[in-house]
Amino acid sequence: MLVLLLNAVVLGLPSTRATESCLHACPVPCSCSKAERGCTVRCDRAGLLRVPADFPCETDSIDLDHNGLRILGERVFGALPSLRRLSLRHNNLSFITPGAFKGLPRLAELCLAHNGNLRYLHARTFAALGRLRHLDLAACRLFSVPERLLAELPALHELIAFDNLFRLVPGALRGLANLTHAHLERGRIEAVASSSLQGLQRLRSLSLQANRIRAVHARAFRDCGALEHLLLNDNLLAVLPADAFLGLRRLRTLNLGGNRLGGVVRSWFTDMAELELLYLDRNSIAFVEEGAFQNLSGLLALHLNGNGLTVLSWAAFQPSFFLGRLFLFRNPWRCDCHLEWLRDWIEVSGLVAEVPCASPGSVAGLDLSQVVFVRSSDGLCVDPVELNLSASSPGPSLEPVATTVSRFGSLLSKLLAPRVLVEEVTNSTARLANASLSYTLPSRGVGNLGHKDTFLFASCVLLGVSQYVTFCLWRD
User: Fold this and answer.
1) Tell me, what DSSP letter sits at residue 384?
2) Model pTM?
């Protein structure tokens, strides 16, 4: 028992000494505490205008967030062989001297985010940081990244560089064989070139959302075979090449929402057998090619809401059909027999909600799930009828004059329609039933009326008098 107690005391001595050393050597405006791997130094919100001169030798983490640091000189942190994390967020850094991080051989995480005056980084800024895995350059207002800047970081896994002023995907990313996550959202990037992502064979997540991307070049992602999440939403994409996503066989999430796409092309998704989430919402999509989703057998959710779709063919999903959620709201759906399959699928699966009908008139305003399709005598589906204004009014009209005037308006629109013979207008009362209430005058002036135009003008005058007389009689 005595032996065990002595061993515990002896083993505890280094830890006690390390704690005492950490607290004793702590910079004056900072607070220090012993951590599992070493000493944690917190100097955030301390009003510092320069980096403290000395840190405990065993320092593992330094937090200098929310201070007034402007310049980092060479070897400004001295020699800290145990330092793994350094955070300099929310300062006023405008210049980092090449070699500022020398003496930090084990640094794995460096945060420089929200230094809006930085704007430029020297190509040798991160020299000697061969073990850096996480680099945060968000909101530094950088215009570009030197080609050789990241070449010094062979172990880099994650690059966070959103809210910057890049117009192109930084060329410094090329060849980063170990990069797995790249965050480049909310910038000014205008295109993804065919060479932008070369050599990124381990990239798993790429965020390019909320930029100004108008073009994605063919085979732009050909080297990104490990990519699982690709976010291109809220850009300016109107068209995409047929082989834009060629090679993305492991992709699980593709977000193309909030662009200007006018249709969905089948060839985009040919390699995406593992895709689970597909966002095509908030575009201008008016058509979907047959078989567009035929390879997406593992899809869990398809977002087509907020587009201009009037019809969605069952052939778009053939030969397979997914069993996930389908989001179709905010589209001007025409609920005729072309959507009967979808109505049936909604009833059976319950995986679709809110498919509001915009037409035909007899079902406008209803949800597709409420539409009843009747059958003809030979068993064929019969489309709901397209109602005119009068037929769509519920119950008998309480304003006979308005009905009469509407009929006169319909007749007038027929009489004044360009290039239509007067005899054709009076052919049948059935043609008048669906006439528009609006009308336009002939393009020629009244002073140049011909024989037919004189007749039309006289008809207009007589029609106006008839309307006035009918109105007066109704009032009496």
Assistant:
1) P
2) 0.77
